[in-house]
């Protein structure tokens, strides 16, 4: 595939790849460098993505610095350019995971620049494009993300990489759902899950099933969502990740709400809300609070609904979370205070806030 065509939808201004990389790079450039060291640092960085985003960034920075220090006479100019492109793409992704989207964008530009000097390896291009798509999704530029993922899927399929083709479909499912098409998300996630071996990346499979269940709930298919969640429940506990277990309880509460089991829903959502408060995830606290408010509104406890929405407004103000998210919550708060609040308005605000979430699950 022609490289210019592959990156046409990235819309990146070209920057010189030999510019300064930021603090910490110069020391690593002066050290004896090796291809294997760079590969090892990239692998270690990727292994941190679920537990330690800061360490993920640090290791990726070191990998990029090592790649920049490689001797082109020893390894070859184009191959070194490829490794530099890969290292900066992984550094971009690490910054995305750590919620530093501006740094992620800068490092992505450098990856694209180095790639233009390399061998045009289609699998490397596909990897960079997939990471670019994840960044576009985090920036809520969903149309661009979906266009990139279509090209990524085709590249992996053409080169016989079924596992990564499946990952592209799974990512496309997530972004399709965030782009207000939950039925489309269900189709892509289902297709991707049929193509992937659960043993290769159980965290990815569990994340995909979790999102699939959530989109089933979004479509009102609560019985299907419950059946799928019941089959996957053991995997949540086998994984042992506290955040995933809290999200499981949250999803159980959403499903119970949809099935009219309001007491069970209130219990599950209340547990999830308190757990998110304990670990300091303010955005999640606000979202689960709105789900709990919907239960209370159904029960006629309107005074408590007003209180919990006011608390969510306070959380957003204190954490300086997206102004548009705060504006939506203020609209809901004012409507409740004027006795114009409704379940439909609450759910509309909740859906809007969910779309503003900046870190995709895959």
List the helices and strands and how they pair.
Layout: H1 3-6, H2 25-30, H3 35-47, H4 53-69, H5 72-75, H6 77-97, H7 101-115, H8 122-138, H9 142-158, H10 162-178, H11 182-195, H12 202-218, H13 222-239, H14 242-258, H15 262-279, H16 282-298, H17 302-319, H18 323-337, H19 343-355
Helix pairs in contact: 3-4, 3-6, 4-6, 6-7, 6-8, 7-8, 8-9, 9-10, 10-11, 10-12, 11-12, 12-13, 12-14, 13-14, 14-15, 14-16, 15-16, 16-17, 16-19, 17-18, 18-19
Write down the Rg: 22 Å
What is the overall pLDDT average?
84
Overall, the morphology is elongated
For the record, give the distance between the C-alpha atoms at the N and C termini, rounded to a whole number.
26 Å
What's the helix count? 19
Order of helices and strands: HHHHHHHHHHHHHHHHHHH
Query: In terms of structural class, how would the helical and strand content be classed?
Result: mainly alpha
- Measured as a percent range, the helix fraction is over 70%
Strand percentage lies at under 5%
Query: Any low-confidence stretches, pLDDT <50, length ≥5?
Result: 1-6, 13-32, 358-362
Instruction: Profile the largest sheet.
Output: none
How many beta-strand segments? 0
